[in-house]
UniProtKB/TrEMBL annotation:
Enzyme nomenclature, EC number: 6.3.4.14
Keywords assigned by UniProt, alphabetized: ATP-binding, Biotin, Fatty acid biosynthesis, Fatty acid metabolism, Ligase, Lipid biosynthesis, Lipid metabolism, Magnesium, Metal-binding, Nucleotide-binding
Gene name of the record: accC
Job description of the protein: This protein is a component of the acetyl coenzyme A carboxylase complex; first, biotin carboxylase catalyzes the carboxylation of the carrier protein and then the transcarboxylase transfers the carboxyl group to form malonyl-CoA.
Stated name of the protein: Biotin carboxylase
GO molecular function: biotin carboxylase activity
Length: 447
């Protein structure tokens, strides 16, 4: 096992990884920008190294500075966390070239899943169901018309280099197809410098269902069920739950097995998430995240498995500590992403936290690096806390979530806690009857 792990990230996820390391008897090195010198994970780490100024490109994305910090401190491994360099194959490769273990999948899998067209192609090859559409890039207008005719309207034109929902256009009939095609290409070129686009059947009311998998370097891959992340605003997840209220045991077992079998054939090692749209009983692959996910705690709550600990273990070469049969889903969990932002306008609200009190009690977990007096810097993502609850049933978890939200105190800055409180009181949410477009309508006051 590693003796010392460098955590190349910040905020709550850096603290989450620190906690797993400490429980494994591993020493930690925090790296931080000048804006994060006072951060909780920096204070708790055994050692810390400042790697640059606040701008991410000069600090958390600065590969040379991070690798130098690992070398100077004698770290055996680097955990990249989420975002930043976590899915960067060049970084993973560079880390390994310095004789340090990258806690994540192989660079080959990072590359394969980092490109949307390649990823969809690989998914298909390994037996994962995908959205019907073009086989890779569309080469011209005639091809666009032909494929749309085959799949049926509406269709979605998507940028091959896309991300964050940019470069996507819906065409409802052949009459809008050319305009949508041209606009998607123009937007793709402007946003990503690459005008390659592909086409998919447009799903009108899907849910976002994702399967958590983990593999080791001995050929074992296990799935840990699904998370329902349909509550999204501008393609950002807001509240997640597991299990999904929309799946039955047969659907869960079927898609979980498909995902685990595909990852086993690929030789995937580390944690990973296969994301699907789910509509009318069918699953359609959209992408794979080759890293830990922000919402991993809901899976931990219903399985009792520490995913970060397991991820570190498999990176060190150890076999998985459990088999598929050992994974038993117990009860229900929710996670609210608490952001430093105005709950009405969604404008970021950085600044000094005057008071912080985390909810507690049975079945409540708060993952946050906040403390009273902490200043939320304006330079990064606005996620400041995750409130996670577990109950024996969905209803018990929901009642617990309601009371835990009432207990949370974050003073001095605005947060989206009022939005969460409103959201969990909505009858559609209580009934689990929502798709990926529901939250936008709710926020717009249409529900
Ligand atoms: P990005 O990488 O830009 O986030 P994704 O392929 O993950 O692109 O799609 C982003 C979001 O767009 C999905 O979460 C879903 O809400 C929507 N979406 C993607 N493909 C389809 C589709 N075929 N039909 C309907 N909605 C889709």
């Amino acid at each position: 096992m590693f003796e010392k792990v460098l955590i190349a990230n910040r905020g709550e996820i850096a603290l989450r990884i620190h906690r797993a390391c400490r429980e494994m008897g591993i020493r930690t090195v925090a790296v931080h920008s000048t804006a994060d010198a006072e951060a909780m994970n920096v204070r708790l780490a055994d050692e810390s190294v400042c790697i640059g100024p606040p701008a991410s490109r000069d600090s958390y994305l600065n590969m040379a500075a991070i690798i130098s910090a690992a070398t100077i401190t004698g770290a055996d491994a680097i955990h990249p966390g989420i975002g930043f360099l976590s899915e960067n194959a060049a970084f993973a490769q560079m880390v390994e070239e310095h004789g340090i273990t990258f806690i994540g999948p192989s660079p080959e899998h990072l590359i394969m899943m980092g490109d949307k067209v390649q990823a969809k192609d690989a998914a298909k090859r390994f037996g994962i169901p995908v959205v019907p559409g073009s086989d890779g890039e569309i080469t011209g207008e005639a091809e666009a018309k032909r494929i749309a005719g085959e799949t049926g309207y509406p269709v979605l034109i998507k940028a091959a280099a896309g991300g964050g929902g940019k470069g996507m256009r819906v065409a409802t009939s052949e009459a809008d197809l050319m305009a949508a095609y041209t606009m998607a290409r123009t937007e793709a070129k402007a946003s990503f410098g690459n005008d390659a686009v592909y086409m998919e059947k447009y799903l009108s009311h899907p849910r976002h269902i994702e399967i958590q998998i983990i593999g080791d370097s001995h050929g074992n891959v296990v799935h840990l069920g699904e998370r329902d992340c349909s509550l999204q605003r501008r393609h950002q997840k807001v509240l997640e739950e597991a299990p999904s209220p929309a799946l039955n045991a047969e659907q869960r077992a079927r898609i979980g097995k498909i995902a685990a079998d595909a990852m086993r054939s690929m030789g995937y090692k580390s944690v990973g998430t296969i994301e699907f749209l789910f509509q009318d009983g069918e699953f359609y692959f959209i992408e794979m995240n080759t890293r830990l996910q922000i919402e991993h705690p809901v899976t931990e709550m219903i399985t009792g498995i520490d995913l970060v600990r397991e991820q570190i273990r498999v990176a060190s070469g150890a076999p998985l500590s459990f088999t598929q049969d050992d994974v038993v889903i117990n009860g229900h969990a929710f996670e609210c992403r608490i952001n430093a932002e105005d709950p009405e306008t969604f404008m970021p609200s950085p600044g000094r936290v005057t008071d912080f009190h985390a909810a507690g009690g049975l079945g409540v977990r708060v993952d946050s690096a906040l403390y009273s007096g902490y200043r939320v810097p304006p330079n990064y993502d606005s996620l400041i806390a995750k409130l996670v609850v577990h109950g024996r049933t969905r209803n018990e978890a929901l009642m617990r979530l309601r009371r835990a939200l009432e207990e949370m105190v974050i003073g001095g800055i605005k947060t989206n806690i009022p939005l969460h409180s409103r959201l969990i009181a909505a009858p559609d949410f209580i009934n689990g009857a929502y798709d990926i477009r529901w939250l936008e309508k709710f926020v717009a006051g249409e529900i």
